[in-house]
Amino acid sequence: MSVTSSQNLNKGELTQLLDIAREAIRGHFSEEGPKSPQLDLYGKKLLEPGACFVTLTVHEELQGCLGSINAHTPLVLEVHNKAIASAYQDRRFMPLTEEQLDHLMIEVSVLSEPAVLEVRSEQELLDYLSNNKVGVILSDNYGQALFLPQVWEQLPKPHDFIRHLKIKAGWKPDHWSSSMTVKTFTVTSIEGKYFEAI
């Protein structure tokens, strides 16, 4: 189990979130189905509205990743909901199966509030990202795409990072316009095996 540097959540709280994601997925395979977390078992910080992504990998290959940008729902419920969504509702992948559970890794990423980054050109954005490996949200009149900071591990060069992000949004790799909005964010995340600590 690995933990990135924490913002407001300590390791114990992050571990609770990881357990919530595990239980949400486990509940899908039970006769009763997944049960929502019992809110009175959690501390104040985990009950505050939070935005998160839950990322699933099997044999180190992406199996599902869905989440939220804006905080509207108590964090414990958001993690529960996004774990189920990532496992069974990500249209890019077949739903998770019991046969995959032995090799399933779960990562829960809690997002900071996105902040607008004032840049006048793509080059200004690239210059900023060369020294700041943060999460990025690109928005234009007809699309939006997000990369978590973890994507820097696969795309360490700012040019490649932004190029792939634009492709994800459905734009041409060289697309840029005066209406482009850039927001950045950081995450507090924890990763662990599905069968860890059972």
Could you tell me the CATH topology label of the largest domain. Glycoprotein, Type 4 Pilin
Low-confidence stretches: 1-6
Contiguous helical run count: 5
Structural class, please?
alpha+beta
Strand order of the largest sheet: 1-9-4-2-3
Protein name: Putative ACR protein
Organism: Photobacterium marinum
Domain AMMECR1: 12-198
Brief summary:
With 198 residues, this protein is an alpha+beta fold. It contains five helices and nine strands. Strand 2 (52-58) and strand 3 (61-67) form a beta hairpin.
Describe the structure.
- The protein has helices at residues 11-28, 44-47, 75-88, 122-129, 158-169; strands spanning 2-3, 52-58, 61-67, 104-111, 115-116, 135-140, 143-147, 181-185, 187-193.
- The chain is 28% helix and 25% strand.
- The chain folds into two domains: 2-112 and 187-193, Glycoprotein, Type 4 Pilin, CATH 3.30.700; 115-185, Dna Ligase, domain 1 (2-Layer Sandwich).
- It is globular.
- Helix 1 (11-28) packs across helix 3.
- It is an alpha+beta fold.
- It contains five helices and nine strands.
- The strands form two sheets. The chain has a five-stranded antiparallel sheet with strand order 1-9-4-2-3, covered by helices on one side. A four-stranded antiparallel sheet has the order 5-8-6-7, covered by helices on one side.
- A hairpin with a 2-residue loop joins strand 2 (52-58) and strand 3 (61-67).
- Pfam families: AMMECR1.
- This is Putative ACR protein.
- InterPro entries: AMMECR1 (IPR023473), AMMECR1_dom_sf (IPR036071), AMMECR1_domain (IPR002733), AMMECR1_N (IPR027485), AmmeMemoSam_A (IPR027623).
- Residues 12-198 form the AMMECR1 domain.
